[in-house]
Amino acid sequence: MNLDQPNYFIMPMFIVPYLKLEVSDWENKKKKLLELMNNCNLESDSFLLTSFFDKENTPANQNDLIQSIFEEELSHMKKSFNFNDCLIKESWFQEQTKNMFHPMHHHCGNGVMMSSICYIDYDSSIHSATKFISPYVDSISCSYIDFTPEVTEGTIIFFPSNILHQTVPSNSDIPRRIVSFNLEVK
Fold it and tell me: How many domains does the chain have?
């Protein structure tokens, strides 16, 4: 094999795409999100505070309100992934303070293909972003590969819902707050 030939190249076989955006009109949208969050009942699930399990007290139109808040970002997501449409199937808020974390999990099932995380209250000097785990092991070391995107307050991430992800234990008493939602896409 002649390595000087132009047809010699190394490329990745698999790619897991994600989209990271800075939310437009962030201060206004943050205010709306915090109002929604304040109307939720955040319960402890042994790891963090979440509204995920409190469907009874979640406003019936919460998904619609969040879809409206992120209309511009959802439009970018649809264009980026070449989707015709998307619908928020479920949404929830989370808060983490000292020693709280979110164990490894995914959001697969019930027609959900994409998930999203928006960082509402987040300070990169004291908080950690979500860590994503590759569905593939490293070919050389045979160990799992993880990826932690650089985010700031007002960053929103869209990712395939089957990707494992987690948060590490917080070292701060200052709350890290996010809104997350699952999307059905067409």
Answer: 1
Looking at this protein, which amino acid is placed at residue 46? S
Q: Is the pTM of this model over 0.85?
A: yes
**89-144 pLDDT per residue, tens:** 999 999 999 999 999 999 998 889 999 999 999 999 999 999 999 999 988 899 99
Structure tokens at 161: 């819902």
Residue 2 lies in a domain: no
Cβ 20 vs Cβ 157: under 8 Å: yes
3 state SS of 65: helix
Owning domain of residue 33: 19-185
The C-alpha atoms of residue 5 and residue 44 are separated, in whole angstroms, by 60
Element (H, E) at 180: strand 176-185
